TrEMBL record:
InterPro entries: D-iso_2-hydroxyacid_DH_PdxB (IPR050418), D-isomer_2_OHA_DH_cat_dom (IPR006139), D-isomer_DH_CS (IPR029753), D-isomer_DH_NAD-bd (IPR006140), NAD(P)-bd_dom_sf (IPR036291). Keywords: NAD, Oxidoreductase. Belongs to the D-isomer specific 2-hydroxyacid dehydrogenase family. Residues 138-307 form the D-isomer specific 2-hydroxyacid dehydrogenase NAD-binding domain. It comes from the Bacteria. This is Hydroxyacid dehydrogenase.
Amino acid sequence: MRWGWNMAIDLNDADNAASDTATSDTVISILEPLGVPEAALQAELDTLPKGVTVRSYDTRPTNDDELIERAKDAEALVVTNLPLRSSVLEHCPKLRTIAVAFVGFDHIDLDYCREHGITVSNCPGYSNEAVAELVMLLTLALLREVKANDIAARSAQTSEGLRRNEIAGKTFGIIGTGNIGRRVAELAQVFGARIVAWNRTPRDIEGIEFLPLDDVMRQADIITVHVSSTPQTAHLVSRQLIGLMKPNAVLINTARGPVVDNAALAEALNAGRIAGAGIDVFDEEPPLPADDPLLHSPHMMLTPHIGYATDEALGKRLHEAFGNIRAYLHDGTPTNLVA
């Protein structure tokens, strides 16, 4: 298989499984790179039924015109975090399903899709381990001030003044106990932390004490956010809630940027009202503008939205996304349906 700008693969001649809904004019367009080896993608394509043409692109589109050209005649689209708004979707009259190779799907115009009978699916489980491990990494980096220690070692300094804290014995506050939040709880328990949590829907999970959100913010030494971005969760971690945090507490956000009032978070850090923050997600996708307040705040550990980005996770993501495509081609309903 060859990667190309407008590479098409006709699977009519391949020995593939039968399908209930695929026809000889079914087109699947993978609108952007999926970050996996060519052989892994080809293995998934080999599982698709006869009569399917797949187009794959090795670059992201740079404007809507280019995006429309890639998508306009497709029945199925595959994207990661590429925005698909109504201004693009209205040029896709054959479109019936969008497979989002991502946990979040707030970059898809769901209202338009619902109105036009377009199903949308996501990949909810692929990054559980990757994101949970990043939470622990950011937590340790803040509690042990890894950046300052690295600078000291490279500058012929000693450890003087760099004694910091452990996770053991601290209270971990988890906002949202879905798959990733629960995995973070498991890892934090291994480190010896007490776990408190808030969830929109009450739950009963062994080892986790569920509290009102205000109390989680007041009690936790480490607060980590694991809710999706919706109109209801915009600035869920508000200026008021940030004001409830302990002076020695740190905040970790690997979920979605708009869930946290980032301007208020930067103010709290600049004023020394909280001890630090580890942020992997922002109000917009990196690269960040030079005036983003988080770039200029002290005691901040930033990563450019890499929580999901491990070789292992991207392999799982590929399989989940094409599982949704295979289910759609079988009976018209993707496995992980979100709209």
